[in-house]
Amino acid sequence: MNDHAVVNESIRIQVAAGDLPVETKTALATFCRRNRFPHLYFETLEPLLSRSGLVLVLATTDRPWPPKGIGSQTVAAVGMALIGTERRAHLTPVLTDRAHATNLGLVGAVTKHLLEHLRDAEVSSAGYLVRAGDRALERALEQAGFAESDLQSTTDFAEYQEHAATPRKVLDTLNLGQVRIGDLLALALDDRELDRLSVYHFALTTGLTAYLQDSLRYAALLPGLIDLAATLPPGGVPPGTPGPA
User: Looking at the whole model, is its pTM more than 0.85?
Assistant: First the structure.
């Protein structure tokens, strides 16, 4: 039996977009602080919360009483996408509370909700920014239906390539489209489905770790919390200049 199945029965999963109620904002800030990446909320998420293109899928538990007010919600996991220029969705790996680090059923359910929302919103693609040449992440994404796109970005430390696919293709490749939420939360998957979802989630989570630890220099994957196409200079990323003769 899935060790998390009983706990998952009390978790509520919902799509949130636009201005969030104060209970949800404080729960999200607490989630980031509790898991030791408070900068993600205060420096990035909070300024974006009122933006219409930001989509959050929140897995939460509710306080029995009182049902409203600060502290009434606890975030167990969150999936994020920023819908930007050309209806491209920029993804961030599903973040889980430390108590749910191996709760793959919950991760699968959040991933399913997010991809189905993006599919229904008719986004043109959904993608991740991966450090160029990081074969481990590239292979994990290939197995989930992603391929290199035409978008690139750079930091002071590395170049990044977007790997993208349509939400429908990822749902089909991971076999999340036809699986019921209850079966996902109970992790009622066959071995091949479990293997593919495991590689997808744990590889991406590991790749994001350096960013969450405020070490951009070592980040193998960047969060999808910037409209990459809108922030590129005209003509895209300029090529590198040749060295001395």
Answer: yes
